[in-house]
Design a protein that fits this description.
Chain lengths: ~110, ~110
Amino acid sequence: MSITFDLIRGHTDAIILSYLFEGDSYSYQINKDILNATDGQFELKEATLYTAFRRLEQGGMITSYWGNENVGARRRYYRITEDGREAYASYKREWEYSKKILDKLIK
Amino acid sequence: MSITFDLIRGHTDAIILSYLFEGDSYSYQINKDILNATDGQFELKEATLYTAFRRLEQGGMITSYWGNENVGARRRYYRITEDGREAYASYKREWEYSKKILDKLIK
DNA sequence: TTCCAATACTTCGGATGTCGAGGTATTGTG
DNA sequence: CACAATACCTCGACATCCGAAGTATTGGAA
């Protein structure tokens, strides 16, 4: 089954924050982690991720810094802030809540 | 808690079809049914509903007809088609599926 | 050694869905 | 007679998502 991506819309930030909650990471890595976690059935497109990173950084949810890899391509790492942790907790609650509502409505 | 409506995005059609599955209805009624089902915590805005009805009708998921009320304002009723029933079953599966995915990703 | 796949980042513009604001018409009630 | 409630509808703004395209680096295959 190929998922209609609009179903995930609005949850992008929550998904990203969920990964950053466990440690700094970078776009490509997060993308691969999502693919692994869902057995290759779901991924956030690169453009979507970058839009989200910009949005989250502007909102003070994350900060970013360049890694000093001396091998391979440079990486921009993202780190969750305290505000980001709070936002994540809130997103999580909202997900649980909207799940309940949709379970009521799609029966 | 006030729900971020973007979380519901993409599920509007499924919600509407879910109601029409149980019998013909009209916009205002469906709106009220949703409000009741969620204890007033969630509603689809009128403009959203009309956009969705147009979309569903153009897609052959529903048909519409004018009720012949001799009392009160005229009502446009919507009826689900066979294609609509199939689409609904599919939407329902997709919802179950995306629920699993999001539960994996928002942890 | 040359080419290509993979890693990694980024921008742009189009498509889509949602909804606030505004509008029309009818009926029943104070 | 005004007004709330029912019921319909349109427009335009806005946010998000993502396809497409582009840059740069490294390592391995041919």
